Amino acid sequence: MTSRDPLQRRFTQTSRIAQQWLTEWWRLAHLGAVLLVLALSPSSYNPESRKILTRQIYLNTAPILVGFSVLCALVTVVLTRIVLVTAQSYGLSQYALQVVIRVLILELIPLTAALFVALRCTIPDGAELTAMQARGELDDMRRQGQDPVRREVLPRVVAGMFSGITLAALSSMVALVVAYMAGYGFTTSGIEAYVRLSGQVFSPAVTLIFILKTLLFSLAVALIPMASALYGMRGLHGAGVRTSTEMRGLVRMFAVILLIEVASLVGNYY
Amino acid sequence: MSTPPPPLSPTPLEPVANLEIKARLLLLFMLVLVCGSVLFVLYARGAFDATQRLVLMADDSEGVVVGMDITFSGFPIGRVRRIELADDGRARILVDLSAKDAHWLRTSSMFTLVRGIVGSPNIRAYTGMLNDPPLPDGAERTVLQGDANAEIPKVISAAKELIDNLNALTRSSGSVGTTLENLQTLTARLNGPGGALTVLLGSEQEAKKIAVTLDRANALLGRLDTIAAKTDTQVFGEKGVLPETRATIVQLNALLGDARTSMKKVDAVLQDAQAISTNAKDATADLGALRADIDANLRKIDSLINEINRKWPFARDTEIKLP
Question: How many structural domains comprise chain A?
Fold first, then answer.
């Protein structure tokens, strides 16, 4: 009997961990579905919530737009130059720009835009929501008959998604233009060939995967910090630094981003 | 268990000037960006281009993908829209040609599908006769195929054969090895006491003979030199053969002049002799006739005499004295 106790304890612990894990993921998925429905419901956009939404959209997007675009342009110049020189040394310069477009615009830019939005906007928003939760403001709202999800979480999530999509779209355009200038110089003679090359890269399947990836990245970075703030995902062993809400939320977010990236790579290249 | 951190005090919200307008502008910007991207991709894919259909028939369409360019003189003039199987099992490659570039293709245009070692295949169009009628819409043409990768096994096989041949040549018992050994022997002989001469003649004794012969030839040449010097004096010297000969020639010239004069006289004499001989010839001819007459007359006289002698009893001296 005594020899079975450690085994039983281990089994009980494992099943509890698995149950908690499943519960957290279910809550995340549920919150995401609720927020999507709310975002698509016209009733969510009354004047008061529009005001909050407007503010969040502006504050999450405008300050980081120029900075990220400039950073993106610099990285594009450097990367294009490296790829061009390397390809020329192998006699494969005709494939260089296509490689740059595929690697930079299809893969790197959506990922970096999402991570940038996460670092600058949605993780601080999550921290803000955690503070509100801790102060009891969300409970006060519930007592006043207001839905904190609709009032506080939805605008932040929508603003986060908007910021992610705008950043990805703008930096993609900037990268396309800068890659052209890095490859052809300040002339217009190569525009036709370059546009054609871009058209070859953006086939219907690739474009669809790119759009879906950008949307899912934006959703992931906007939603997960909110979920971890709302539901306070803690580890079984208490609120240590390693298992604090923020840390687990970050780990979960990166895991989801990684999964989306792998799925998009499989869809593009498998 | 560690105590949770105290809740953060709320930070006051900073007012944003013209927030509504800015947010709307941002929304508009995002919409323009997204719509512009969509339109750009559609334009880049040729969705707005007027096109003309071309059907290429190929035995193997491996590597051909939808969206691939067809080029003319290095410029893309169309795109592959669809690839399907024909009823005869061949691949049908449906190409949309840009209407503004379709005039480069004529009824006699040729199409090739070439696979390089690196990269995807290339579809190329060639037009030799630009005066031929333009290629009609929906035209079907067979594409000529070339595959660099298919040549690789042949090249490898040829390379293997070449390596085998080289191995056979360079083996120690092979012709190259033997030649090198002979070359070594030759070099040793060249570096030997006889040098190149031993190599040429085969042995040192023969080389020595040549050396002796050369010495003798040298001596002979020396003697010939002396003879030549003496001959020079004797032939070309003051009292040499040549001046004497020259003098003799002068005399001969004089003699020849005299002889010429004499010959002229002889020539005159000969001419006279020729005339005499001609006369003599004529006289001979007359003489012959005269003789014949004389003979005839003498016979007559003889017969007459004989007649007379027969008939005359009185014998007399029958001798007739001619004048």
Answer: 1
Cβ partners under 8 Å of residue A59, min gap 6: A159, B16
Interval B208-232 mean pLDDT: 90
Q: Is B15 on the interface with A (CB under 8 A)?
A: no
Output the pTM of the full model: 0.65
Asked whether residue A14 is domain-assigned, the answer is no
- Domain presence at residue B188: no
- Which pLDDT tens digit goes with each residue over B245-287? 888 888 889 988 898 898 888 888 888 888 888 887 787 778 7
Contacts of residue B34 in chain A, CB cutoff 8 Å? 165, 169
Interface of A with B (CB under 8 A): 54-55, 57-59, 61-62, 92, 94-95, 127, 131-132, 134-135, 137, 162, 165-166, 169-170, 172-173, 193, 195-196, 198-200, 202-203, 207, 238-240
Measured between CB atoms, does B29 come within 8 Å of chain A? yes
Quote the CA–CA distance of A119 and A252 in Å, as a whole number.
Answer: 14
Is A240 strand, coil or helix? coil
Lowest mean pLDDT among A140-149, B48-57, B58-67, B304-313: B304-313
Q: How far is A135 from chain B (nearest CA, A)?
A: 6
**Highest mean predicted confidence (pLDDT) among A170-174, B14-18, B128-132:** A170-174
Nearest C-alpha in B relative to A171: B33
Does residue B6 or residue B118 have the better pLDDT? B118
Contact, B60 vs B117, CB < 8 A? no
Cα angle vertex B70, ends B69, B71, to 5°? 110
* B37 touches A at CB < 8 Å: yes
- C-beta atoms surrounding A130 within 10 Å: 21
Structural domain contains residue A9: no
Cα nearest neighbour of B35 on chain A = A169
**Given A59, A95, A135, which is nearest B7 (Cβ)?**
A135
Interface pTM (ipTM) of the complex? Answer: 0.84
Nearest to residue A201, comparing CAs of A267, A125, A102, A119? Answer: A102
Do A134 and B34 count as a contact with CB atoms less than 8 A apart? no
Does some domain include residue B245? no
Q: How many CB pairs below 8 A link A and B? A: 83
Strands B75-85 and B91-98: antiparallel
Tell me the pLDDT tens digit for each residue of A209-248.
999 999 999 999 999 999 988 887 444 444 555 557 678 8
Could you tell me if residue A127 is inside a domain? yes
The residue segments making up the domain with residue A122 are 45-269
Q: Among A187, A177, A180, which residue's Cα sits nearest to residue A70?
A: A177
Q: Measure CB to CB from residue A92 to each of B36, B40, B118 and give the nearest one.
A: B118
In a domain, B60, yes or no: yes
